[in-house]
Amino acid sequence: MTPSVHAVCRLFLLLLLRLGPVVPERLDPAVEDLVNRNADFGVRLYRAVSSRTDDNVFLCPLVLSAALVALLSGTGSSTRSQLLQGLTLVGLDPEVLPDQFRTLMDASTSIQQGVAIFPAQGLSVSPSYQDLVQTKFGGKVQSLFYAAVPEALDAINAWAQEQTGTQIQQVLSTLDPQTQLLVVSAASYQARFNPIFNQTFTQDERFYVNKYRVVMVPMMFRAGKFLLAYDRSLKAGVLKLPMADGVAMLAVLPDEITDITSVEEGVTSEKIQAWVQKLKKTKLEVQLPRFLLERSYSLKNIFQTLDITQVFQDDADFSNMGGANGVKLTEVCHKSVISVDDSRSDPSGAGSESTAFSTPPPRLTFNRPFIFIIYQESTGSLLFMGRVTNPTEK
């Protein structure tokens, strides 16, 4: 073998070692189990929230679950058992959960988020519990004097601004001066499609809020090859839209004659997994409205419908938070913001040009209420879930 051939062979072997075969990294089974349980809780929560309103809906189940598991770490006895059951976490070790959540949250770098526990001033909170909330959840424990409502509100809203890069200016506008313990979570996300929608093709189109109301919205456009599925049982199409940072959106559009409520009632975490598995590459023209959602929720009443009740009662056990007796959770507050538009380019430099086909392919237009689900592709973790009823409203 000549030196030149020998060098080429060495180079070829080096490339093989560097480039392949590419084997997907296997998710830790315990983390995979947690992902599935979180998705189940997130979908149940979404259904509970969406069933109470006709407005836009937007939640970040991952960050909200993290806040509740941070709270869980401070509970004991039957309070802990019931909270585990309500969060679909029965059978998992509460001592290990904080580390597992840290893994999921570390993988979700595109979300600006925060969790916080705000006990009333005078309640005993141990340094070890404060350290756990900070190190495992990136969260904060801060005592507040709730009788001074304006100052307490300022402190909570300043925290939310800091955690979300000022994307969330105000997480709360009112407070009960008798508050004993408050759990707050906040999340902000800027969608960056990859490939992106080209602004050049965006134009105002009709969006049918319902059969009585039509609004004009900026409708983004892109032609190309997409992953698409159809659910015959729910009568809805499912479109996958890849985004930057290893995140993807599933946009779920009910048929024109199908009420979105019936689709929502049929959505489960297993159903979402089935949609992903059924996706097939299809040539399409896609129109999707720009939208900005900013939704706030006080979830005490919602949680009680999900059988999470004892934390709110006089017999709640928060002994692992620092030994305080007679403490109960007053409220769980959650605020999340998402911006979906065609103004942000992907940092990888991916192009935004629509593909030109010799024959125009079918067009899928999201011009009526639809559901969207955002998940981390590497873990399958459910990050956000929402409903766009009217893109012109937050």
Alpha-carbon distance between the two ends = 70 Å
Strand content: 25-35%
The CATH architecture category of the largest domain equals 2-Layer Sandwich
Taken in chain order, the helices and strands follow as: HHEHHHEHEHEEEEEHHEEHHEEEE
Uncertain regions spanning at least 5 consecutive residues: 1-24, 345-352
What value does the Rg take, in angstroms? 23 Å
CATH class of the largest domain: Alpha Beta
Shape: globular
Say how many strands there are. Answer: 14
Can you count the helices?
A: 11
Please, how many domains?
Answer: 2
Mean pLDDT: 89
The CATH homologous superfamily of the largest domain is called: Antithrombin, subunit I, domain 2
Please state the structural category. alpha+beta
| CATH fold label of the largest domain | Antithrombin, Chain I, domain 2
Please describe the biggest sheet, giving its number of strands, its sense, and whether it closes into a barrel. 9 strands, mixed
Binned, the helix content reads: 25-40%
